Each structure stands twice: as C-alpha cells, then as structure tokens.
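Notebook entry, structure prediction.
Reason for the run: the old model in the group folder had no record of what sequence produced it. Starting over properly, with the input documented here first.
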Amino acid sequence: MLRHLVFKHLVAAVAPPLLAGPALAERLGTSAGVVEVTRMADGFDTPWSIAFLPGGDWLVTERGGALSRVADGVVIPIEGVPEVWANGQGGLFDVVVARDFATTGEIFLTYAEPRGGGAGTALAVARLDGERLADFRVIFRQEPAATGSVHFGGRVVEAPDGTLFLTLGERGERDTARRLDNHRGKVARLTRDGAAPPDNPFVGVAGARPEIWSYGHRNPQGATLGPDGTLWLVEHGPRGGDEVNQPKPGADHGWPLVTHGEEYGGGAIGIGAEAIGVEPPARVWVPSIAPSGLAIYSGRLWPEWEGSFFTGSLNSDFLSRLSGEGLTSEERLFDGAFARIRDVREAPDGALWFIAEGDGAVWRMAPAPDP
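New structure, fully documented this time:
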C-alpha cells in the first residue's frame, strides 16, 4: 500500500503525535549558522540506510526487511527483497546505488541472511526495475554463520575502481576477529561479482580468506570514502572505545587484543590500548557514543565544514561533526532532538540527510533561508 506523507501528517494533526523530536521543519543553530532540518518521510520501522537515485528519488531500508522508493513524497514498497533474519541487530541493512546505475540499474543490498539456525551477513546485487527488484543474486556470504544476534557490520562502499568494501562484525565471537580463516570482524574487498581481487593482501596466503582487506574489527557501523578515495570506518567498541579507523591493506586493528574500552560489567579487555603491529585508531570516544553512518563532507553548501566527518550517535541522540588534525575537534549537533541517529549521507546537492531510527524518520539538513 502506498503511504502518502501529506495524509500521514493530516492524521497527526487530529491524533496524539507518534514521533519524537522537532516538527516537520525546524530551524536549529550550528557552528556554520542556522540550518533548516526538514522531515522528508516518516512512519518507518527501524530505518537503517538511505541512498539517492538519479532524478531525485531515494531509497530507504528498514531493518525488518522492507525496501522502499520515495518519489515526490510517496513511499513506494519495493518487491523482491530477500528474506532476512530479523532478530536482535539482524535484518536488512545497507542500500547503495551503483556508480553505473544509469546504464545497469543496479543497487547493492546487505542483510542478515538466514542460515543453519542462525545468520551471516550477505551482500547482494539486483536491478531496480520500477517497484521491484529483478535479477537478484547474492555475491558474497560471511563465513561462518553464527547463531548470535549481534555485530553484523553490513556497510558497503563502492570504490572508484569498482571494487566493493564490506564491513563485517565479529558476531559477538570476539576471539575470531584477528584470525584470518574466517570473515568475522573483517573488512572484505570484493569485485563486482563477489570474488577476491588479485591484489588483496591475503590472496595466496595459506589458511587466510582471500577476501579480507583488514581485520581485528568489532562492529563497523559506518563506512565511506575520503576525498582521495581511501576507506574510512566508524565502529563500536564495548564500554568505551568507539573508533574512527582508516583500514589499510592487511592492517590489524587489534580487537580484542587492543581496545580503549572495557567489559560492560567492568574489567580490562586484552592487553591495553596499543600494541606493536596493531593499527591505532584515528579517533576514540570514551565514553561510547555508538557511532553509526559516516559521511566526509565536500563543503558544497557549508565551505567551512569541508572535510568534516559526520556520524550519528545511537545511544546519545546527536550528530557528531569531527574536524581538525587527528579529528580531535567535535561539534555535537542537535543534542537530544532526534532519537538514535543511524545513518548520515551527503545528497547530490550538498545537503546532509540522516536517519533518526528511534523516530522512524528521514531528515534533510540544509542552510536555513533568510527569515
């Protein structure tokens, strides 16, 4: 059934409000001046990711398994989405529009795929044919699957050379994250058909999965490319120790040997905050903010924010802007105004869009017009 946003807001006018946070459009202050934050769509059940299509339409996933196309204010369900394992943190995750969408019509999806009584993170590609997915095919499966319901990772990024970076959580099996015989706690680098590129760092290494790009990760929930085309991540630590990382080929990021966090009930994990041969994080949060989604801003609408890192906070309800050498400067935008910011993306026009998962809404931030 189509969900028309105008109708929904008329209903809200005569019924108790169902959404937390600001009104449909709100003027809010930032270091770059007043911005206008506009609710672009709502009523979603745990939205997870957004992606922009040529021509102005956009896509949104819901963790329970729904994919929708939003066109001229109408939310259109897409048919042909695979069955997902919607348990705990599992479900439908990322959606990314292929760079060659104009000719192929293809999009990428990541999700928790039911397998053997549990699930594993899967990466699929399909052709978006109007209101349905066609030619759907899984090109990569995390091995092995697990019965736990946490730490799936699930962000995918297409590099300029056409390869795909995929973040893979350690599924709560922390001791597997630094082993090379599995895909848990890894970043995978894949070709368009899901194979390992021949220049991956562990191709030909006995006992190692050739798809691995970097390892020793816990649960990377945001990923994007920097201006030079290199990969950046944000990932969850335990109690404290959330990280910004720049994974390099073959790099060990240390989890669980090295962390700035501790056990949830207190107590040390591993040997400390650093070790020889372990890649240090570019930025650490203590206490944790539970970062999710990542965008490195172009400066198109706010030149003073060029190069800033934007990520959402799932546990403290703000949009974090990191800047400066070592990403040491942090501006916390909209503190407490939006519930569980899950994803943040720069739109083609330079506006910043983000998902407030707890509000079931997608928002657009742009410079506020003169009053």
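Summary: Residues 1-23 have pLDDT under 50 and may be disordered.
The old model has been moved to the deprecated folder.
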